[in-house]
Write a structure and sequence with these properties.
Elements (H helix, E strand, L loop, with lengths): L3 H14 L7 E4 L5 E2 L3 H8 L4 E7 L2 E6 L5 E5 L5 E5 L9 E6 L4 E5 L6 E5 L2 H7 L11 H9 L5 H6 L9 H11 L12 H20 L30 E5 L2 E5 L10
Parallel strand pairs: 2-9
Antiparallel strand pairs: 1-7, 3-4, 4-5, 5-9, 6-8, 7-8, 10-11
Helix pairs in contact: 1-7, 4-7, 6-7
The structure holds a DNA duplex.
DNA sequence: CTCCATGTTTAGAA
DNA sequence: CTTCTAAACATGGA
């Protein structure tokens, strides 16, 4: 589930379990995920240095070494997560990277191994090199609206375009459209300014609520789509069976009654 | 066996 | 140039 809220939970987990203790050992079990750094140099860069800070931009997690002269970069792909380890623990199944301290450690786990483990001078440099847009939770209203109306095409595609706004994926894009009462294939040009401003507020509300819920759909407010986003699922507001439609190359889930585009 | 999945990148068509 | 689609990547689960 690694979209912005999930990665934010991983970041907070790392803050609790991974900072201010020297790294004693790292294991790279999936070298193919490394970008721009070898397993050997990653070990050399981290070993005997404490990790001192974390930063998240969109779906990317950055971890600073002491001195902040270099940052570990993690992207979780489709299936990745970050798990704390106890001292005696075997690495979990599908652990791609494990970092051990004198006591405990952390593991980057990715069963589907579509992710990235990298090293960068700074989060800003990485964001620029990878052409990421502003973080979805850092974007102010006027900047959001201005960036949105610069483009055409579907609202959902823009929300999921990491180069325009970073952090939203297919699942949370569906939730945002549901909360906005917009059909999945709504075009940007169909939004008047008031609706664009409302969309900005909804993006922030949905992502914040998801973080508050520990990125666990089961803990989201009762009127959220996500817990029902599966075959046979019904709209939490009106009870109608949810439907799917393809947009932006992904399947989207929606309520055909609540998301008619006329009010909501 | 087939199809699908929370992501990104690349190539190609309009 | 923009927008949209499809494929590829790796792998597990239904």
């Amino acid at each position: 589930m690694p979209e912005l809220p999930d990665v934010e939970i991983f970041r907070r987990r790392l803050d609790r379990h991974g900072l201010d203790r020297p790294v004693r050992r790292i294991t790279v079990a999936a070298p193919d995920l490394l970008e721009g750094v070898s397993p050997q140099s990653l070990g050399r860069l981290l070993k005997n240095h404490p990790l001192v800070a974390t930063h998240r931009h969109g779906k990317y997690l950055f971890v600073a070494r002491d001195g902040r002269d270099g940052w570990l970069v993690l992207h979780f792909g489709m299936s990745g997560s970050l798990e704390p380890l106890e001292s005696g623990d075997e690495p979990p199944e599908h652990a791609c990277l494990t970092v051990r301290f004198d006591e405990g450690g952390i593991a980057y786990v990715a069963p589907r191994r579509l992710g990235l483990i990298g090293w960068t001078e700074s989060p800003d440099a990485f964001v620029q090199a990878h052409r990421l847009g502003p973080d979805a939770l850092a974007m102010e209203r006027d900047a959001f609206v201005a960036a949105l109306v610069q483009h055409h095409g579907m609202v959902k595609c823009w929300l999921m375009d990491q180069g325009r706004i970073a952090g939203i994926g297919n699942v949370y894009a569906d939730e945002i459209l549901f909360q906005a009462g917009l059909p999945p294939r709504t075009g940007i040009t169909a939004l008047e300014r008031e609706k664009a401003e409302r969309l900005h507020a909804i993006v922030r509300r949905v992502l914040s609520a998801a973080i508050e819920a520990q990125a666990d759909p089961g803990r989201l407010p009762d009127d959220y789509l996500l817990p029902h986003r599966e075959p046979g699922g019904q709209c939490p507001r009106c009870g109608v069976s949810l439907a799917t439609v393809e947009a932006c190359g992904r399947r989207g889930w929606y309520c055909p009654a609540c998301q008619s585009g006329r009010g909501g």
